Amino acid sequence: MTSFRNFLAEELDETKLKHLEHAEDHVINAGHEGFSHAYHNLKDVHDKLTGKKNDTKVTMKYDGSPSVVFGRHPETGRFFVASKSAFNKNPKINYTLEDIERNHGHAPGLVSKLRAALQHLPKVTPKKGVFQGDIMHTAEDVHESDGRVHFTPNTITYSAPKNSAHGKAALNSKIGVAIHTKYNGKNLEDMQAEHGAQLNDFGLHKDVHLISTEHHLDNIKFTPQNRERFAKAMTAAAAHNKKAKPETYEAIKGHEIPLKTYINHTVRTGTKPSVEGFMNHYMKAHQKKIEGVKMAASKASKTAAMESDIGHVQRNRAHFENVLNQHKHLQKAKDILAHTLSSSAEFDHSINGKKSKPEGFVVVRHNRPTKIVDRAEFSAANFNKVKAQ
Question: Can you list the pairs that 336-339 forms with residues at least 24 positions away whose Cβ atoms lie under 8 Å?
């Protein structure tokens, strides 16, 4: 069984922030160790909300676009901007406006955002260090109505009173950015992420609207009812985890990605995950592959793969059901925390004109980040939104 540490190193590479995992998905990713990591993430947030101290950080997750890596290149000392591809084997590093056009000219929207980042972020960025953040707006994205300022970088519209600090900053700036990660190291390829980065070393400039991702818990009310519901969900999750055997996690090995793809499908469709639903979804995915080839030998090979995978799930139904039950109760506990944490925010949030919660939160435990997102609300809206043509 792949250890949680090795899984992260091999599959997710959390040393570079390219992908965040939902808390409940950790049990699919890494079995018992994954469950333990998810469980203690959630418990740490619960403890902080009830006044206990620990080193786990809770940060706001902002729905910006694009994500940008920027700062002083550790080897050249020159200021640069890049997309998340900054950490690829052959990164596209932009020192000049000409670099941006050459590297990203095929994507005009990205070019516009990177140009603004290159022109204005040096005005506030420390002389040393590499950072990552989400661009929340450039000047043309901000509009005003009814005494409030609004911008919609992706799925969520962010709003603030015109005369508030955020409202004034958004109206008067050339770019807004929510910075969440700092990278440390002597060369770009080997840099290590420091999640939940602070803005203490950043300067101030009217052209840059700096948005802190730090989420203050002082004014958040964790009601007795929600505490009880949280405890009940965590107890149920732990009970199913206790029933799991080593072979439970061996059974789902090799099927993690199809299982998570299926769970995302249930988020889109508003249905509840089940082993039967997984098998139906899995079979359709295989059938699509079969239909995608013409040669009889290829069809036979892919048909055999489908029969092998579906047969495996059928034979190990109890193991898949156990993992889905752990997943379900961890998600219930997480959703209670997401709802509670959302009761206080620096912006108002809406999706298509309807009031919503923030995108979610990132819990950083032992410098490993985990998403706390209400999938039924934000993830479903994000999956189902109409993409701009």
Answer: 336/226, 336/229, 336/230, 336/233, 337/42, 337/45, 337/46, 337/49, 337/230, 337/361, 337/372, 338/372, 338/373, 338/374, 339/226, 339/374
pLDDT in tens, 74-93: 999 999 999 988 888 888 99
Q: Structure tokens of 250?
A: 């061996």
How far apart CA 357 and CA 267 sit, in angstroms, is 17
Between the alpha carbon of residue 253 and those of residues 33, 124, 285, 330, the distances in Å are 14, 46, 18, 20
What's the rounded mean pLDDT across residues 125-142?
Answer: 96
Radius of gyration of the chain (CA): 22
Among the listed residues 312, 374, 310, the one whose alpha carbon sits nearest the alpha carbon of residue 339: 374
pLDDT of residue 384: 55
Say what the pLDDT of residue 16 is. 47
Q: Using the predicted structure, report yes or no on whether residue 385 has a pLDDT greater than 70.
A: no
SS3 195: strand
| Whole-number Å distance between alpha carbons of 328 and 345 | 27
Instruction: Give the whole-angstrom CA distance, residue 6 versus residue 365.
Output: 17
Distance of alpha carbon 288 from the chain centroid: 29
Q: What is the pLDDT of residue 380?
A: 55
**Angle at the Cα of 46 (from 44 to 51), degrees rounded to 5?**
95
